[in-house]
Amino acid sequence: MQTIDLATQPLRELNSTLQAQSAQTNATAWEVLNPRGAHAIAVGLDAPIDVTVRGVTGYYCAGMNKQAHIHVTGSVGPGVAENMMSGTVIIDGDASQYAGATGRGGLLVIKGNASSRCGISMKGIDIVVHGNVGHMSAFMAQAGNLVVCGDAGDALGDSIYEARLFVRGSVKSLGADCVEKEMRPEHLEILRDLLERAGADARPEDFRRYGSARKLYNFDVDNAAAY
Amino acid sequence: MNDHDTRIPRTVPIQSATFSNPINAEIRRAAATGIYDIRGGGAKRKVPHFDDLLFLGASISRYPLEGYREKCDTRVTLGTRFAKKPIELDIPVTIAGMSFGALSAQAKEALGRGASAAGTSTTTGDGGMTPEERGHSSKLVYQYLPSRYGMNPDDLRRADAIEIVVGQGAKPGGGGMLLGQKISDRVAEMRTLPKGIDQRSACRHPDWTGPDDLEIKILELREITGWQVPIYVKVGGTRPYYDTALAVKAGADVVVLDGMQGGTAATQDVFIEHVGLPTLACIRPAVRALQDLGMHREVQLVVSGGIRTGADVAKALALGADAVAIGTAALIALGDNDPKWESEYQKLGTTTGAYDDWHEGRDPAGITTQDPELAARLDPVEAGRRLSNYLKVMTLEAQTIARACGHNHLHNLEPEDLCALTMEAAAMAQVPLAGTDWYPGKPGTGY
Questions:
Q1: What is the ipTM of this complex?
Q2: Considering the domain boundaries, does residue B342 fall inside one?
């Protein structure tokens, strides 16, 4: 395993080293020590490498990740795995606001809770939160799956497009144009796969599904209050 | 039967200035439809502008440069603060961000061709980077917008600069809009949206709020792109002093400041006409912010919104900008609102010069459309040549003025070269009213 210690090595060196790895690299396992809440750790990676960050990170950890498997043993600040393209990001602790924002692919797993706006504008990413999510989660969510094993806060899925939301616990309120939908067999299958990949001890049958009512897709004066 | 006694003079019908015909028509339209008016373009109302300024040519106190023999440089470098590879442009006129989606692929290609031929940059928009524009743009600025449509790290690294869009002059504080008529298969795929829906872009970025967050966002983008390319921050003209200062504090290499005449593909008319500052009013406060921070010329200022001629370019630079950006003017150079389409404009209920229903996707000129037949009307090669010609003319005009003022570089133009024709312009540009040495708010004058 290769080790980079942020107590002695600058952030630029960390990211440039990890970004320089190719699909053919033999250095497939990396460890980052002493993150100490630093921002932009392990961003822009594009190789199938394993990176373990031992500690707590600041903003945008694993931002725009492609291919890499990134594991943070602590909690993360805002915007973890923002705009992720592929790969896997696993957070052992909690995540601050905007987790997985605009993500296009890959799997983000948060084993603790996620704060507000989890999955905002998500565009294809799969997010599994073992705990709860805060208000306005999945705001304007376009595609992908958000799985919440705990409870969801206010205005879940406000102005949602085609993303699928699965919540096991309570939903404090649904946002504009977000409705509960029928859980069909294909959804249970999607959910089962995501829960398994995320290591979540939960039964798909205990979840409810939410998505877009598609009433705000084209302007209608009778819906003006929802705009 | 007319029972009026013709020997008695009648009161002439008087139209109300408050309830004018256009206002009344809008009231009737709103009453009939229940939706606000949406259109493209920038503010159409008359506001103080560069036309209200004049240059003071050289005479005895200054001597001019010989127009055809003495050099007047036009080059500009953007992004010298942090980027390893600043953008080097031959001319200080750039092409503003306009999206594929709002514009046809042919139009985007033409913008790239024209800008490249003239030695300047073009800019993506709210819809991602297309191969057409990357392939035909020697210098391409990649917009990083709240919607993040089409955003991916590969395109980010393919860009020559990144422009974080906080706002734009046509709608500061508002998000984007692309109505269903223009969400074609390709546009829908690039934006990860269902075809045919009315697409709404957020007005705030999804993963940061405020200047402290912006600083961290800029750090992330620099780390992903290896600190190679400049990072611009674009704001709509509302509080230019503070916005410029905060953008600099956040680490911007370049500040792009867009006044209310700056265009949009589609926004509510009430937003376009009633929110924001005229471009003329934005420049001096922004320059003062840079000067107060010791960053004038270190962080470059690009001004946009209603730039049409070389005179406008020269005036913006004289007030302290490093470069300008054009959008609407570039579209007109490509062929937008060309009189040759008048019969088709008539069918759409409008006329040449007034066509602004860019959101409907029925542009006879094939520019603001996704209709394949209409888009095919625009030849990207010919349209690109027209844009290149226009950019070169603007540059020649600006050089002509700069030489007449005795300057061997466009950046040597200064406020002292200008006077104002109106009190309003004098106050906004902070240059003397013509024939005086005074302007409203001049320090030490008590007014």
A1: 0.96
A2: yes
